Amino acid sequence: VIAAKSILNKTTSNSAFSTVHTNNNTFNSDLSIENKKKMLPEEQAELDRLSDSFFAGMRKVAEYNFEGVDGETRKMKENKYAFTKSFSEQISDYKNGIFPKNDSLIISETPKVWRKVGFNALPVTINQSHVDYAINNTKDSDHFIGETAINNLPSAISNPIAIIQSKSVIKRPIVIVDVGFGAKKIVLPIEVDGYGKVNNVDIDTNAITSVYKKIVRSNNYMMLL
After folding, report:
1. What pTM does this model have?
2. What is the per-residue DSSP string for 70-93?
3. Which of 83, 94, 167, 219 suits a disulfide with 62, CB 3.0-4.6 Å?
4. What's the CA gap between 156 and 113, in Å, rounded?
5. CA–CA separation, 159 vs 167, rounded Å?
6. Measured between alpha carbons, how far is 44 from 36 in angstroms, rounded to an integer?
7. How many CB atoms lie within 10 A of CB 42?
């Protein structure tokens, strides 16, 4: 996994993609699809291949990150949650009280359409507090979207209506998706190169920091996609 990330960084530093790379948790205000279009087709294909390989490796690290030998190793491995499960299966386990108490849920890999505007190839995560608000209505009506809608997030984030950036808060871009609430869309602020916790281990992720319904007006944002 470390090697894959190293190769990925090396690849991006020598191409047009370096102009849309993120650093120090700050989302670059110069991100644009036009910059990404400067990449050669073979560069884009190689980047996508490395990104997919990196995410697959991160999944394995999430599930099998342990130390020890012989019987102790097997015991620790048996106690690990299987993050190879789909997001909907994780939601089900969360509802049934068998999801690890302090861990984040992994929604999916970072979609290719996100990578085109500068996101790094990391898992997309959401913490349990936001899942609770979304399916149990424990905050307010706008944060309550229901189990069906939240289970649709993996497909919805792969086909967003827009990716925007606040003109006042550049640290967190916002992904907007439609899951069937009419004029109100689902707004997903993202902590770029943030972190999540899997099997009680902190890992780098693109972390969703909220989920809520809103009528989005474009005059307060800069369009990235």
Report:
1. 0.69
2. HHHHHHHHHTS--TTS-HHHHHHH
3. 83
4. 12
5. 23
6. 9
7. 8
Q: Which one-letter amino acid corresponds to residue 128?
A: Q
* Radius of gyration of the chain, Cα coordinates, nearest whole angstrom: 18
Mean pLDDT calculated for residue range 77-90: 89
DSSP state of 17: G
Residue 14: predicted pLDDT = 32
Among 185, 181, 175, smallest CA distance to 221 is for: 175
DSSP string covering 111-129: PHHHHTTT--S-EEEE-HH
- For 133, counting Cβ atoms within 10 Å of its Cβ (0-12 exposed, 13-18 middle, 19+ buried), the class is buried
User: Mind listing the pLDDT tens digit for each residue in 97-128?
Assistant: 999 999 999 999 999 999 998 899 999 999 99
Is residue 130 pLDDT above 80, yes or no? Answer: yes
pLDDT at 37: 47
CB 12 within 8 A of CB 47: yes
The residue type at 136: N
Cα 64–108–123 angle (5° rounding)?
60
Beta bridge partners of 162: 176
Coil, strand or helix at 212: strand
Rounded CA separation 203/37 (Å): 30
* Residues paired with residue 173 on neighbouring β-strands, in sequence order: 165
| Cβ-based neighbours of 26, under 8 Å, separated by 6 or more | 170, 171, 192
Tell me if 197 sits within 8 A of 207, measured CB to CB: no
Residues 184, 202: Cα–Cα separation, whole Å: 33
Report d(CA 109, CA 124) in Å as an integer. Answer: 6
